TrEMBL record:
Domain of life: Bacteria
GO cellular component: a single term: membrane
Protein name: Signal peptide peptidase SppA
Protein's GO biological process: signal peptide processing
Active site location: 161, 356
Keywords: Hydrolase, Protease, Serine protease
Source lineage: Bacteria, Bacillati, Actinomycetota, Actinomycetes, Streptosporangiales
Keyword Protease appears in the UniProt entry: yes
């Protein structure tokens, strides 16, 4: 009887929700068994947002406690969480943020920006608040590579397409510095406004505090940035009422039972999630560390499946990508166009970044939504290769080539482009840029000159992109889903389904054809992503699946 009583108390008693952000959040759901294993203890952003939305109307939920740490959270995701917390506060729920430190002898501006949205902000007595502002640092390895006898031959369209500058320049160009300065300024404006509003401080005072940071704990309390210095046990003793049940937000969302089960034939909103660098083929994940890649086969199949499903009334396409293959991006763009032609609205929700190829796949949507701090735009292209012949010769590597065709060895890394080959490179870059800008103009309802003016490879924050017409609205995934329901004429609680829809048996069986949903499953690939590709990029070396271009692959970023 005592056990039954405890179970009834857990179902009906007061709840205090928890969220641990020290390990970050997973944006897209795992699409493979290894991905599910690697992220099984990491909450999904969509689950957290759904749980906080439900909690606003749940009388059992009394409070939310969030532990903030040094885990990797991008500014776009932080702004989504801030928005959800603000709404929860407005619903009369107590919201509490605590941390051992908001930056331990390091930057903590974004972490504190998130914490400032909560009604109460606590800090461990030994902790600090690293509110120091925004710094964008760019390394240049041209001279270091020259000492290794490595030269980069790189073309770009246009002056703001600066991703390759680290290999071709030894300093920031004027356009590079202008773009970076505006990004830092825009992000700072957003952070100052958010902290000022949440903490009841004047914006000018917040700017003063940024210039005075970082702060030790007692100084942060005196400045009004933190409410009190408390250890975890003290925070919980003050926040969790007697008899309350603690429950993680993601578990709360998954355990939610609808008042009535949706009918199998009910109209739905489709959710397609694309995360990581864009490439041809299937999406994949490396077991060597790092995130996933967005494969054009996988995303195109998901969009195609949603388009052909009569029960899907609208599609939300979540994009979190720095770009990648031009051809793969174009494949996905085509499926967005076809979905709209089929009469289904497509709403794009941008995550932390949706730039270059990430903007390419989004630009044909009915509505593009981004967070103010989302990095987007970068409408341009670069391409080229490192020339390693002299380096290889110096270390005793001899390379000989037999060719048939004047340009058969064009993509070899042992020799540079000839004048004729360089002309072909520039022709390709011009074609890609013209196609990109033309599709931007068409999708965004701009004349070509205006589209070119906004393009030229420049990266914009979501706030600036909204002002310039590259983004329609500011908001997050929950806002995009709400808009999709509204456009489709569906109720506010209409179900959301992820596509492509695959049951466990379909994931195990071989695909019957390229039209079979199982043909687009995510793959496990032995590639040097994550830490390995980051190291390769620092050294200016090609890395499979990484941020640099392989021979014969033309990349927009």
């Amino acid at each position: 009887m005592e056990t039954v009583g405890r179970m009834r108390q857990r179902r009906t008693g007061p709840l205090v929700l928890e969220l641990d952000l020290t390990e970050g959040l997973a944006d897209a759901p795992p699409a493979d068994p290894l991905g599910a294993l690697l992220t099984m203890r990491k909450a999904r952003l969509a689950d957290v947002l759904a749980g906080l939305r439900r909690a606003r109307k749940d009388p059992r939920v009394k409070a939310l406690i969030v532990r903030i740490g040094g885990g990797p959270l991008g500014l776009g995701v932080v702004q989504e969480l801030r928005g959800a917390v603000v709404k929860l506060r407005a619903a009369g729920k107590l919201t509490v943020a605590y941390a051992e430190t908001y930056g331990e002898f390091g930057a903590g501006t974004v972490a504190y920006y998130l914490a400032s949205a909560f009604e109460r902000v606590y800090l461990q007595p030994s902790g600090d608040v690293g509110l120091t502002g925004i710094a964008l640092e760019q390394r240049f390895v041209k001279d270091a590579l020259a000492k290794l006898s490595v030269e980069y031959q790189m073309g770009q369209r246009h002056e703001y397409k600066t991703a390759a500058n680290m290999f071709t320049q030894d300093h920031m160009t004027e356009a590079h510095r202008e773009s970076a300065a505006r990004i830092a300024e825009s992000v700072t404006e957003q952070i100052v406004a958010g902290i000022a509003d949440s903490r009841g401080l004047a914006p000018a005072r917040v700017r003063e505090l940024i210039d005075q940071g970082p702060f030790i704990g007692a100084e942060a309390v005196d400045a009004g940035l933190v409410d009190d210095l408390k250890y975890r046990d003290e925070v919980y003793a003050e926040t969790v009422p007697e008899g309350s049940h603690l429950l993680y937000v993601a578990r709360y969302a998954k355990n939610a039972l609808p008042r009535k089960m949706p009918h199998p034939n009910a109209d739905v909103i489709a959710l397609v999630q694309g995360s990581g660098p864009i490439r041809m083929g299937r999406s994949g994940r490396s077991p060597l560390g790092g995130g996933s890649a967005m494969g054009s086969d996988t995303i195109a199949a998901a969009l195609r499946s949603a388009r052909r499903d009569d029960k899907v009334r609208s599609i939300v396409f979540r994009v979190d990508s720095p770009g990648g293959s031009y051809v793969a991006s174009d494949t996905i763009w085509r499926e967005v166009v076809l979905a709209r032609k089929a009469g289904k609205s497509v709403i794009v929700s941008m995550g932390d970044v949706a730039a270059s190829g990430g903007y390419f796949v989004a630009m044909a949507a009915d509505v593009i939504m981004a967070q103010p701090g989302t990095l987007t735009g970068s409408i341009g292209v670069f391409g080229g290769k490192p020339v390693l012949g002299e380096l290889l010769s110096r270390i005793g590597v001899v390379s000989e080539t037999v060719t048939e065709g004047a340009n058969a060895g064009m993509f070899s890394l042992t020799r540079g482009f000839s004048e004729a080959q360089w002309a072909r490179v520039n022709a390709w870059l011009d074609r890609i840029y013209d196609d990109f800008v033309g599709k931007v103009a068409e999708g965004r309802g701009l004349d070509r000159d205006r589209a070119h003016e906004l393009a030229r490879g420049r990266v914009w924050t979501g706030a600036d992109a909204r002002e310039n017409g590259l983004v329609d609205e500011l908001g997050g995934l929950e806002d995009a889903l709400a808009l999709a329901r509204k456009k489709a004429g569906l109720p506010v609680d209409a179900p959301v389904r992820s596509y492509p829809r695959l049951n466990p048996l379909e994931r195990l069986r071989p695909a019957e054809s390229s039209e079979d949903k199982a043909a687009a499953l995510t793959r496990i690939r032995l590639e040097a992503w994550g830490p390995m590709s980051a190291l390769a990029a620092e050294l200016g070396l090609p890395a499979a699946g990484g941020p640099l271009m392989l021979p014969g692959q033309w990349t927009i970023r």
